[in-house]
Structure formats: C-alpha cells, structure tokens
C-alpha cells in the first residue's frame, strides 16, 4: 500500500484555509462495529471494495502493563493504523488478530484507522466464486486488552489422548522467562497445580484427575483458573475423547452418530454476519429443536460466540477453513494464506472440547496441485492436533449402473469420509434415492457433509413440483432412507438450517438473492422438511442411547 502524506490513515484536518484535505472523518457516516457494512446502509448492500474506519480513544499509561489491540475478524483484508502509524495488515475474513501497541499508544488522545477491503481475488481464500454473501467490514469484536508486562500468552488444558484419568497441557508466557511460578486450578476437581516455567517461558503439565466427560447429553464444563502473580485467567473447559475405530466414531469410547445440520454465519431474521452471543444462540436453539447433537459451521471459522455457545448447549462442532471450490491450488501465497487461516482457527479453538472435526476444504475439484495442497494442510493439521478428527467435504465421484462411487485422492488423509451429494436436486430424481447404491471403499466412518434441496417457505404444490415445501419434504424422506441404508453411515449435516443470502440465487419468485435450501426461512418460519429431519433424528437419538 502506498501511504501518501494526505492519506486517510493520518486522520488530518485542514489547519489553514489553503490546506487541501479531501476527507473529514468527524463529519462522516457512522458504521456500527462489530457489524458488516452491507446490512447497515442500502448503498453498501452489494459493495465490494475498501471502507476506512476511524475510532478515537483516550488511554492512561500504567506501570508494568502491556496493551494489545485485538480484532475478532475483519473481512477480508485489514490494514490497521494507530495515530497515523501502520501497525500491519491481516488477510482472511474469519480469524482473529492483534497488535502489541504498548510502545506506540500515547498518553491521552489516540486514534485508530482501519481500512477493510472485502474484494476477493482469484488467489484469495476463498476466491470471489462462493455461494454466500461477501459481507465486508469489521465483523467481530474489537478490544483493547491490558496485561501485566509478563503475562500468560497461551495455554492448553485437555485430557491426554486416549486416557480419562490424566489432564495435560501447557501454560506459556509472552516472554522466555524461566522460573516463573504459575498456579493452575480446577476447583471442582480439587486440582491445584504449582507450575514453573522453563527457559522458553513455558510450563507443561500432566495431572492425575478423572473429570466427568463432556457430551451433548451432558455438556459438563469446568472452571479452569490460571494465576500468574496478579494476573488471573478464567476459562470454562470440557474434557472428552473423540476417535474412530473402523467405521465407527467413538465419543468417550461410545459409538456416536453425528445428528448434524449445516449453518452459515448469517444472523437470524435480520441477515448480515452474526456477531452476538444472542444471535448464535437462536441459530443453535433451532439446531437443538431438530434433535441435533452436531453442527457443521460452514464454510469458514464462525465467531467464538458460536463455538462457545455450541459447547455450552451440547453440540459437537465441525470447524472449517474457506478452502472452497476453485482455490488457486498451484499458488504458493494461496497455500500460505490457507495454512495461516488453519493455524489461526486451530489456535483459537484448541481448548473448545465441542470441536471434534477440523475441516480443510469444501468441494474442491481434484487435480495434482489440489491434492498436494490439501495433503500438506492435512499433515499440518495432524501435527498441530492429533486429538481431533480431520476431514474435508469431498465431491461425489461418477455414477455407473446406478452405483455412485466415492473416489478421492484425499480420502487416505481424512479420519471420516465426508462428501456432499444432491441427488434429486442437482441431477437425478428424488425417486432415484430408492434404488441408488454406493461404492465407498474405505474402512472409515461415512459422513454426508451436505445434501438437500430448495423450497420457498409457504409455497405449496404436489411433491413433484420443485420449490414447493412438499417437494423438499419428499426429498428429505427419500434421501434419509437412502443414507440410512449406507454401510458405515455415521452421521450427516444436511444443507442447511436457514435460507441464506447469495448473489448467485437470482430467480425473482423463488430466490430473490436467497439460497432456499434452508429448513427454516429467513423470517424464522419452519418448512415441512424441518419436521421430517427432526423426527428422523429423534429416532436416531433413541437408537444410539439404548
Ligand atoms: C454446495 C456448496 C454450498 C452451496 C450448496 C448449494 O455443496 O458446498 O456452499 O451453498 O452446494 O448449491 O446450495
């Protein structure tokens, strides 16, 4: 970026009658943060490009204190300036970032300027080719965070892989200071560990303790308190095991079926990006009404509010990076970008026991470049965290003699075989579900990461009339019956909980810039198919709880 001397980032005001300043933040429109700009002003509804934000704040410096400027997310590229100085830029619309401004913040008046650009390019992650609304802006919380100069920078607290009687993890300081005493407490488990940091400023721990395991039926969380001198960090953490054994998924050693649904991070009723805990809870309550125990947060990391609410409400989570469709798989910067977004997602959610699947991609066309790209991402994910399942939503292979094959070079890298299939909507007829056979040659659990069809809520006709609620209900009945016959069928997340905005969906009567595959309309009204899935999951729940 070239920052010319009159740039917006300087937040200048004309000082003399001759000054040429062609902007004035003090008289500009106001935008609410957090929040996308598309839903705040009708002129911004389709806008893709840059918008500059400015925020004043006063600060009183303190001894032995560091100050950080934290962003929950900004879509897609953010450049952040403090008092006219460029702090840095961040790429990726759905992951957090922060800057240490201890030595840059002034006593008294300061101003932050942020340029956000939501225009997506062919080398970006994702590209401009998506089936969701490209909401731009500072879409999640912005915080000023004070810590002691020597502070806890990171921590992990979880069950040791494969055991139920040992809690392990680490606490890490922001400096390589050895010999610092840190206390780790889990009061309800009578755990009180005295840790001492090593020369890296890190303290690993293994503690004998047998917590009550977290599960959707009993989402048990414990207060975890980390004390570093005067600094105290509190988190609510759950403990569980997730693994596969042949074609079974085991949660805490017991066979489990993922009764899932896909969710986009679009606010109920008003649309726009979800940014509050309340909105996240409305979406997840609808998932609970469906008798879900699992949500696929498509197609990018949702806000922490969503993940934490799912954990407290007893919903397992599929966490995904937006390596979506036609990514530039041969471009090394694109790989670096995807790799960084994967790191940021896994770092942010590593203490969230509800997250059971890291997903690396969605419906990516097979090629040598794509296979290399995804194989490297899956190795990176496994190296970072071998306690969760790795997967990606594949495309289905070809169909011959009424047999559909799942053949994808990536299936050797994933723990569960996941694929998207739209038989009866994109190709074929609903009745084909009655005779369709599947060839899935892997000794791994099978998860249908997407299937479904469109219906305009309130439009009624016979079950052979596309867009009618009756058509969608019939598609759900036949699809469910077909998948329930699959060997190794371990779960599914139909597409999708709620109708959502997409510029690709332009039929003026049935779509009107909405993708209509939701089981609930954008106004929160349930379609007939909602009850078909709800009843199937009620049966599945009984089957697995006996
Ligand atoms: C694809 C894709 C979704 C999309 C859906 C659809 O499977 O993964 O992002 O919205 O199909 O076509 O509705």
Descriptive overview:
The chain has 546 residues and is α/β, with parallel strands linked by helices. It folds into 3 domains: 8-147, Galactose-binding domain-like (Jelly Rolls); 152-242, Immunoglobulins (Immunoglobulin-like, Sandwich); 252-456 and 468-497 and 526-545, TIM Barrel (Alpha-Beta Barrel), CATH 3.20.20. It has helices at residues 277-289, 304-313, 332-349, 368-384, 469-483, 528-545, and strands spanning 50-59, 65-71, 77-82, 85-91, 97-100, 108-117, 142-148, 152-159, 166-173, 181-186, 191-196, 202-208, 222-228, 231-237, 242-245, 248-251, 254-256, 258-263, 294-297, 316-320, 355-362, 389-395, 399-400, 403-405, 417-420, 437-439, 446-450, 489-492, 500-501, 514-515. The strands form 8 sheets. An 8-stranded parallel barrel has the order 18-19-20-21-22-25-27-28, surrounded by 5 helices. Strands 1-6-3-4 form a 4-stranded antiparallel β-sheet, with no helix packed on it. Strands 11-10-13-14 form a 4-stranded antiparallel β-sheet, with no helix packed on it. The radius of gyration is 25 Å and the shape is globular. Bound molecules: alpha-D-glucopyranuronic acid. Residues 131, 299, 362-363, 420, 450, 495, 515, 517 line the site of alpha-D-glucopyranuronic acid.
């Amino acid at each position: 970026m070239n920052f010319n001397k009159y740039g917006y980032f300087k937040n200048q005001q004309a000082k003399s009658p001759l000054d040429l300043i062609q902007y004035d933040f003090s008289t500009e429109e106001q935008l609410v943060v957090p929040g996308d700009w598309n839903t705040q002003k009708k002129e911004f509804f389709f806008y893709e490009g840059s918008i500059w934000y400015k925020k004043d704040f006063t600060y009183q410096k303190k001894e032995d204190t560091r100050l950080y400027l934290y962003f929950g997310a900004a879509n897609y590229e953010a450049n952040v300036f403090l008092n006219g100085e460029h702090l840095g830029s961040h790429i990726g619309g759905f992951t957090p970032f922060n800057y240490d401004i201890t030595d840059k913040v002034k006593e008294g008046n300061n101003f932050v300027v942020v340029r956000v650009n939501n225009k997506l390019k062919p080398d970006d992650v994702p590209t401009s080719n998506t089936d969701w609304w490209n909401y731009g802006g500072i879409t999640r919380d912005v915080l000023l965070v004070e810590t002691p100069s020597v502070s806890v920078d990171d921590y992990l607290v979880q069950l040791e892989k494969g055991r139920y009687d040992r809690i392990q993890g680490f606490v890490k300081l922001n400096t390589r200071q050895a010999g610092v005493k840190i206390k780790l407490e889990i009061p309800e488990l009578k755990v009180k560990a005295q840790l001492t940091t090593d020369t890296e400023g890190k303290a690993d721990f293994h503690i004998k303790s047998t917590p009550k395991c977290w599960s959707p039926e009993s989402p048990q969380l414990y207060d975890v308190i980390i004390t570093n001198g005067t600094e105290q960090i509190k988190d609510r953490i759950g403990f569980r095991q997730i693994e596969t054994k042949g074609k079974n998924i085991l949660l805490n050693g017991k066979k489990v079926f993922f009764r899932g649904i896909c969710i986009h991070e679009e606010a109920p009723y008003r649309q726009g990006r979800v940014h509050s805990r309340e909105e996240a809870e409305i979406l997840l309550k609808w998932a609970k009404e469906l008798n879900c125990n699992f949500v696929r947060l498509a197609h990018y990391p949702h806000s922490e509010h969503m993940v934490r609410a799912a954990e407290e409400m007893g919903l397992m989570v599929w966490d995904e990076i937006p390596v979506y469709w036609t990514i530039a798989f041969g471009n090394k910067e694109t790989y670096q970008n995807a790799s960084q977004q994967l790191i940021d997602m896994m770092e942010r959610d590593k203490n969230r026991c509800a997250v059971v699947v890291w997903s690396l991609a969605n419906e990516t066309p097979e090629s040598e470049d794509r296979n290399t790209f995804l194989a490297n991402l899956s190795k990176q994910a496994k190296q970072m965290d071998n306690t969760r399942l790795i997967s990606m939503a594949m495309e289905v292979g070809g169909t011959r003699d009424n047999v559909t094959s799942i053949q994808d070079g990536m299936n050797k890298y994933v723990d569960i075989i996941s694929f998207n299939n739209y038989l009866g909507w994109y190709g074929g007829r609903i009745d084909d579900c009655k005779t369709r056979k599947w060839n899935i040659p892997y000794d791994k659990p099978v998860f249908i990461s997407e299937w479904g069809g469109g219906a305009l809520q309130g439009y009624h006709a016979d079950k052979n009339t596309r867009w009618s609620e009756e058509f969608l209900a019939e598609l759900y009945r036949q699809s469910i019956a077909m998948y329930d016959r699959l060997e190794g069928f371990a779960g599914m997340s139909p597409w999708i909980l709620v109708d959502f905005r997409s510029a690709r969906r332009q039929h003026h009567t049935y779509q009107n810039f909405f993708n209509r595959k939701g089981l609930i309309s954008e106004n929160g009204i349930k379609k007939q198919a909602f009850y078909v899935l709800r009843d199937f999951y009620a049966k599945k729940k009984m089957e697995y709880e006996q």
